Amino acid sequence: MVLPIKASEIIELKGKLPLIDVRSPLEFSRGHIPGAVNIPLFSDQERAEVGTRYQQAGKDAALLVGLDFVGVKMSGFVKKLNAISRGKAKEVSLYCWRGGMRSASMAWLFSTAGYKVHLLEGGYKAYRTYIRAEAGNGSPIIVLGGMTGSGKTEILYELRKHGEQIIDLEQLAHNKGSVFGYLGQFPQPTNEQFENDLYDEWSKLDNSRPVWLEDESRSIGAVGIPGPFFERMKLHPMVLLNVPLEARVDRLVKEYAGFDKSLLADALMKIAQPLGGQGFAEAVSAIIDGRFAPAITLVLGYYDKMYRKALHKFDNRTIFEIETDTGDASANADKIMNFIGRIKDL
Known about the structure:
The protein is of the alpha/beta class. 52% of the residues lie in helices and 13% in strands. The strands form 3 sheets. It has a 5-stranded parallel sheet with strand order 1-5-4-2-3. The chain has a 5-stranded parallel sheet with strand order 7-8-6-11-12, with helices on both faces. Strands 9-10 form a two-stranded antiparallel ribbon. α12 (245-256) packs across α16, α13 (261-267) runs antiparallel to α15 (277-288) and α15 (277-288) crosses α16. The protein is elongated, with a radius of gyration of 25 Å.
């Protein structure tokens, strides 16, 4: 049995049933629905050959080439699915790029093998359209703001200890957002996969309760926050924590001083122009000499200026400022919880 389903339904099913992506390995690596397993109908080379034949000789000729590739692999596809589904009911959901012949063919095969198949209408393309439109809808957002080095990410996790909902955008992006943000991180996902993972986290939230997000620019390293999601972030209230410069410098020195000095100096090349020739030279020299605090102070001069500019750009939101004299994340999370407990606008 093959049952067509929509993107919203496959998101609900994917935690309950095996989710199979039948696109080629390269397509899968660029981006896929979180939790999906790749059982490709065609290899990357086979897909290219079918596409070439389609362009040169039309649909019927391409179909014959595709059948030649697939025929010998059909039993293997079923064996792979059996291994994935072992011990569970024979029910599966699957998709290809646009809900065309690839997913229809695999749906027929799995149905013939006794599976109940939920087939995504419009395929992965429909899923992508859906999540870009829906990410940020539902749960009210509270944005945690503060200058670079305020410890916002650590504060988010302290807020979670207080029972608050959070999404760590930097963890999803594998980048801490600053010029040094890639150091010590896993390689960044593709922008496509970042968006998929972001929506996956969003879909797990309790919509009756707010979610805390760290204030970010549109780009986090090489990936970008989806436009609709970013716009919603910038409309919701912000709790702006003002942490003293000395505490911020101290935090960043502890965070980055252990990295190779040449890596730190190379990273500064990304902001060499806004730092200015003299500022850049002074920062690099300080890093090479092991004088990290002066170097970080120079870098923060640039980031603080940019952050103030961004605050003015998105000034059509409610901003609650909290003063603190410490960089301790636990203490600052307590300050924030005490503050929001006294107001009704969040």
